[in-house]
Batch of 2 targets.
Target 1
Amino acid sequence: MQAALPTNYDNTGLVNNYFGGVPSGYDNWEIAGRADFDLTPKQRLSYVIAYGIRKNVPFTVGTNSPSSFAGVVLPLPYTAGGYATITPVVMDVEHAWQISDHITNQLKFGFNRFGQPITSLTDGVSGDQATDLGITNLPAGQASTDFPGTSFATTTAVAAVQALVRANSVSMSRRPHQLK
């Protein structure tokens, strides 16, 4: 495992002696749309969707040191980076009904999801797999196809959030006043 450790040091000290980094950027695309359907002169059905993908190019830059050195990474396979693909989805369906000249009812259903799967940079890379390093008796999958986890005084958390929302509102307007 020590064969891939960096050798380009700026001094001979034991700590804070390596400077490195990787180019970074994003590959983004998004599509958004809205459709309105007039069911009757006083009823409207609306649908809104937004979907996109953001990929970090070439990969997400992590940190192997305190937050004051964020972005400084060790070379593969020791880097704290990963392949991150963020896929937000937002959908909304609304039914609006004008009951009278002064009363309107709106019923909405919404869904949003913020998924962010992160995969290891060494998953399936020949020479960087745990089994290539002579580690045996591992289960099939990521435990045997990734470089063994290394930590340089840091931790990482991954989260995905999704929600389903329903809302109903009735508005009443009379001259300058409006009640909800």
Note: Helices lie at 142-145.
Target 2
Amino acid sequence: MRRPLLAVLLNNGGSQGLNGILADEMGLGKTVQVISSLLVVQERCGVAGPFLIVCPLSLVDNWKAEIAKFAPSLKALVYVGDKNERQRLRDGVVAHVNGLPKAQRRDPPLPFSVVLTTYEIANMDAEFLQQFSYDALAQRRCSLCFSRP
């Protein structure tokens, strides 16, 4: 029998490595809650990221602005644009990794801690995006899931 997500999070979510922010109303500060959660994970737990944020295209600029305003230490790769722009962004990441000493290329330090993209682009460019091992995922309008407790 499937248990409702809310019950799982309230009863034993933390002990099972599940985390979340549940809220449906606009203006409740979900974006800032997620950003501050990522900062806590990065600063207190030593988890550098990358973190993946997937949202509607209409919210990308808001996410970018909120990250810059409330968490300038989180360096965001805004992975949107047409096919050529995204190829340019991919080429930049590949050039960065290829410029590292060979020993660091297996698990390279990245020039960003957040990848910000849309559902459609995440689906189209899944092969590229799946090359990273994300420490957290924020999806839909703003719900947060950590891959590590």
Note: The domain at 25-146 is CATH 3.40.50.10810 (Rossmann fold).
